Amino acid sequence: MNISIPTLLRIKPNAIYKLGKYLRKESFIRVAVFYGTGLKEMLKEQITISFDSSEIQTVHEDTINSNAVEDIFKTAFSLPGKVDAIVAIGGGKVIDYCKYIAFILKLPIISVPTSISNDGFASPGASLLVNGKRKSQKAQIPYGVVIDTEIIRKSPDYYTYSGIGDLISKYTAIFDWKLAYRAVQEPVNDFAVLISTNAVDVMVNYKSKDIKDLSFLRHICGCLVTSGVAMEVSGSSRPASGSEHLISHAYDMKAKKPSLHGLQVGVATYAVSWLQNNPEHETIRSVLEQTGFVDYVSKNPLDKTDFIEAVKYAPNVKENYYTILTDKNNLDKLIDFVNNDSYFNRLVK
Predict the structure, then answer these.
(1) pLDDT higher than threshold 90 for residue 193
(2) Which of 60, 76, 142, 210 is 20 to 30 A from 288, alpha carbon to alpha carbon?
(3) Is the pTM of this model over 0.90?
(4) Which H or E run contains 85?
């Protein structure tokens, strides 16, 4: 089993200005650069200064507003013949797009997230549109991850809350994975469990929970990178994704107005942790409270009716993926919780 993990990792203020230096150090001189929508105008000057100072050549440049697999193939095979690396600057859509190009062409990718709404910027998977339907595909795990924490701090708060929701879900995901081992003998990779659990523990135990604190942001970023590595080690999304993610995916399908993935995951994690009788249930509640996640979501709640429909549909989202929701009796228990728990009803309306 071949395991790849990021070789280049920089998480610090103003890292964007040193991107060219980092690329040259890795001998990535000729690069294809892809921006998320609106980010070229915002960051082009900094990128140009950084690249010029290190004599990095941009041989292809594009702005991505699609994640359709046919567009990805078209782009991949239109790149110049000599490209040392792909550089993806932006959110999940452009990074997933580039991870799949890198997978097709067997090129290294440098992930430069401008928000931290989930762990996808460092994972070996990509969420793509295939024949008009969203599917998770195997992709290239980034060779490098460069995160400018000043850019993250200035990004809208809901992206960071989304990242916190995605990260705290590792507690329920690991519980479901171990449950699958006991119920259907699905193998568990103990090292991946350790990596994923340690990732969320670092965030939970950090003294500050202020999302504008650069040090706390650095820890969240590092934890999300670590979560991506856990998926690479396990060869699956199991250490990072359980019943809470199934509910979020179902909510995307059922809701009239879906929210950010990580916000939905965080809300579902709190409910699922109750259903699991998870020993970290109160920890999950405390972290979501202390970081401001609960306050934000209570002002922008999920739709309660749509959430219940998502719970009902969640076991159908992924075939042969055992979680606590596989037992149909647990669906009724969770729906009763959603209807009657006063604290949870701050998060749905």
Answers:
(1) yes
(2) 142
(3) yes
(4) strand 85-90
CATH 1.20.1090.10 fits 157-346, yes or no: yes
d(CA 134, CA 115): 21
pLDDT single digits (tens) 317-326: 999 999 999 9
pLDDT of residue 134: 80
Which residue shows structure tokens 């000729």? 30
Give whole-number Cα distances, 156 to 63, 116, 153, 217, in Å.
21, 10, 8, 13
Residue 224, both tokens = 């999300």
pLDDT at 307 over 80: yes
174 pLDDT higher than 70: yes
Question: Distance between CA atoms of 29 and 188, rounded to whole angstroms?
Answer: 41
DSSP 16: G
Kindly list the distances between the CA atom of residue 347 and the CA atoms of 162, 263, 289, in Å, as whole numbers in the listed order: 14, 10, 11
Residues of the chain with CATH 1.20.1090.10: 157-346
CA nearest 166: which of 208, 135, 196, 133? 196
Structure tokens at 126: 């990509």
Half-sphere exposure of 172 (CA within 13 A, CB side): 33
pLDDT digits (tens, 9 = 90+) for 79-131: 998 999 999 999 999 999 999 999 999 999 999 999 999 999 999 999 998 88
For residue 345, how far is the Cα from the chain centroid? 25
A 10 A CB-CB count for 342 gives 6
The pLDDT value given to residue 1: 67
The highest-level CATH class for domain 8-154 is alpha beta
What are the φ/ψ torsions at residue 281 (nearest 5 degrees)? -55, -45
| Numbered ranges of CATH 3.40.50.1970 in the chain | 8-154
Tell me whether residue 347 is exposed, middle or buried, using C-beta atoms within 10 angstroms of its C-beta: 0 to 12, 13 to 18, 19 or more: buried
Nearest to 113 by CA among 65, 72, 148: 148
